[in-house]
């Protein structure tokens, strides 16, 4: 018999995302005593209300993947057109925006929060295609010269100044999240830790990258791999 899951922030947010209107008594007790999770709950509830008001047409399953496949096949599509297509996908599948609502943009912290809000990224195969990753990276301003690891998950995500990407790779140091975030918010490397995760953010391509993993060695290894195996053209 499995031991009950400790109701910490990560467990609460998983439960809230899984079924926003029906969470356990333990989850409600945690929410009542945690300011951060109470704010998170308000955002989720507000988002649910917006979806209920706006979305009255069912979206065919896999539509976002088909849009991305069509876009990534056009190798010479300009970044503006790529961003428009990405925005269409985001408007269809509204994500949890963990990048807004804070007074100062803390790139490592927000990358970690995004990982915490998207636990399925570690257990789901989604757009797990190295050619698609290569195309996404090219539109972000990088040419991949050698593999960074096995791509297992890619998903559009909201950033502070536009739509970015959350990519999960299997490496010899474990699973690592790599974010490609457009904009002009990060000018020097930044590091951070939170809830057992480590993160590094640094300028790259058309904005900045953020690397998140559960140990410093995995973050450092991915940072080195990016420096050695991605040629930035911006």
From TrEMBL:
This is DUF3379 family protein. Keywords: Membrane, Transmembrane, Transmembrane helix. InterPro entries: DUF3379 (IPR021806). It holds the Pfam family DUF3379. The chain crosses the membrane at residues 79-99. The keyword Transmembrane applies. It comes from the Bacteria. The keyword Transmembrane helix applies.
